[in-house]
Amino acid sequence: MTMTEAKMMRMCFLLVQLSITFFVFMCCVGNGNARITSAFVRSEFPSVDIPIDHEVFAVPKGYNAPQQVHITQGDYDGNAVIISWVTTDEPGPSKVQYGTSENAYDYTAEGTTKNYTFYKYQSGYIHHCLVDGLEFDTKYYYKIGTGDSSREFWFQTPPKIDPDAPYVFGIIGDLGQTYNSLSTLEHYMHSGGQTVLFVGDLSYADRYQYNDVGVRWDTWGQFVEQSAAYQPWIWSAGNHEIEYMPYMGEVVPFKSYLYRFPTPYEASKSSSPLWYAIRRASAHIIVLSSYSPFVTYTPQWLWLEEEFKRVDREKTPWLIVLMHVPIYNSNEAHFMEGESMRAAFESWFILNKVDVVFAGHVHAYERSYRISNIHYRVSSGDPYPVPDKSAPIYLTVGDGGNQEGLAGRFRDPQPDYSAFREASYGHSTLEIKNRTHAVYHWNRNDDGKQVPTDSFVLYNQYWASNEGSWTQKKHHLGDLFGWTAPY
User: Fold this and answer.
1) Which of 271, 311, 364, 483 has the CB geometry, 3.0–4.6 Å to 423, for a possible disulfide?
2) Beta bridge partners of 104
3) Nearest to residue 175, comparing CAs of 184, 167, 166?
4) 143 strand-pairing partners
5) Residues 315, 319, 324, 330: what is their CA dihedral angle, to the nearest 10 degrees?
């Protein structure tokens, strides 16, 4: 045997050893035997809002030019959008011109205009226009405004509802408008995400007083336009949207939020824009309101009971829930604030085989194992969460970058239900491959888009337990090679 052949054999042997070690480690992770509290200490920007005169808040030039442009899904199945914008000089037309070729607008939709006051702040003219009857999987160009002040954008409709439709969702929460927020947004815009699932706490304007509350809603609208004008952001409300400020005479909860950010709630038979559902590609997405009544017989409870009956996993196999307050959280910040919603809805999540629950509120990142605490009955049953293969994975992504800073105090020791946790700013993506598999990534802002800090392959809860699903798993798994752990 030559020297070169001996070296090659040693290298092969080392690679085999490394592969075996890595496989054993990832199996431990997948089976819930490896809990991680990251020791990473990030270098962060100061947790202060970007100054109002910063270029990221620059308003477009021209008389009555549309600003703060954003879109969201406009119906149940994804072939409609609601386009929103603000004009400041006069109402102007609430008209959207659109078509499938750039600078060729064959269609027109008419919207509505409204405005509001908050203390002595007077909002601009807020336009909302439903554009429906769109073709699936099609790029549309749209134009708003008139004359030299008009502006042009585009968006892509999702594929039609299909169990194997691939799609990439971005997940962002607690964003705010600091330099950390800007870093999160810029990282996300290079991630390949096609639609943002936003888990509440948008502008943090409620940390201001008097007229500055409204001003900071305007700056945030301009801030997110760079993404939200080109792809839907699916909204949910957090505590910073409540804005209950009696010292200013403002006592109507969610006032600014509801004027500015419409949702397609009526399409899912909801009675409130604060909770609703949509279907997009191969996913059924349910948005809950942590700060609206949700106990037995309340409107939200009754609606959710019916919405779960409308879920068809043969058409939309991926069942995703969005809420603001996490129901499993091992951070000292907001610890156990989600207990009441957990008691109300956790058994439904398990019964209906929800795949994943995204929440915000806690300014850190955390991933759970599949666990549940549905057997405790005060005087009997398991008093602690236990492993449960029918349970969803709970992900806390309240790490968008707001001015309140990071929640760096995790409870010690790390509880058994917590798989990974880290106090850093970042964003997540959920890349649905087909009906059986999706790939999840969490990326901290300190890393480039190619460096996922936490990552795993997610097995669909419905198809993984369905008869014959193992054959489909093996058939589809070939496209998913990577270092990620299975769940």
Assistant:
1) 364
2) 101
3) 184
4) 97, 152
5) -170
Question: What tokens were used for 401?
Answer: 């970058």
Task: Check 70, 127, 324, 334 and give the catalytic one.
Answer: 334
Alpha-carbon span 6 to 177, nearest angstrom? 59
Lowest-confidence range among 26-40, 290-304, 450-464?
26-40
Contact 271, 306 (CB under 8 A): no
In the block, which residue shows the tokens 């449960």? 388
Tokens of 26: 């990832």
3-state secondary structure of 348: helix
pTM for this prediction: 0.90
Rg of the chain over all Cα atoms, to the nearest angstrom: 23
3-state secondary structure of 418: strand
Give bridge partners of residue 426 from the DSSP assignment.
444
Q: Is the dihedral of CA 334, 339, 340, 342 positive or negative?
A: positive
Alpha carbons 150 and 140: distance in angstroms, whole number: 17
Name residue 96's amino acid.
Answer: V
Q: What is d(CA 464, CA 457) in angstroms, rounded to the nearest whole number?
A: 13
Catalytic, 334? Answer yes
Q: Phi, psi at residue 13, to the nearest 5°?
A: -60, -45
CA atoms within 13 A on the CB side of 442: 24
Closest-CA residue to 444 (of 427, 429, 457):
427
Three-state SS at 255: helix
Instruction: Quote the CA–CA distance of 261 and 257 in Å, as a whole number.
Output: 6
Instruction: State the residue for tokens 């947790």.
Output: 47
Encode pLDDT of 389-405 as tens digits: 999 999 999 999 999 99
Strand intervals (E) in 158-213: 167-172, 195-198
Instruction: Select from 450, 389, 445 the least CA-distant residue to 422.
Output: 445
Q: What are phi and psi of 4, to 5 degrees?
A: -65, -45
Task: Report the half-sphere exposure of 154 (CA within 13 A, side-chain side).
Answer: 12
Angle, to 10 degrees, between the axis of helix 299-310 and the axis of helix 339-351? Answer: 20
| pLDDT tens, position by position, 212-225 | 999 999 999 999 99
User: Residue 373's closest CA among 410, 407, 336?
Assistant: 336
Look at the block and give the residue holding tokens 């807020």.
126
270 residue type, one letter: S
Q: In terms of Cα–Cα distance, which of 402, 400, 485, 472 is closest to 433?
A: 472
Q: Please name every residue paired with 318 in a beta bridge, in sequence order, or none if there are none.
A: 283
Cβ-count burial 277-292 (b if 16+ within 10 Å, e if not): bbbbbbbbbbbbbbbe
**Cβ-proximal residues to 10 (8 Å cutoff; 6+ apart), any chain:** none
Judge whether 239 and 291 are in contact, CB under 8 Å. yes
Q: What percent of the chain has pLDDT over 90?
A: 81
Residue 326 structure tokens: 């996490």
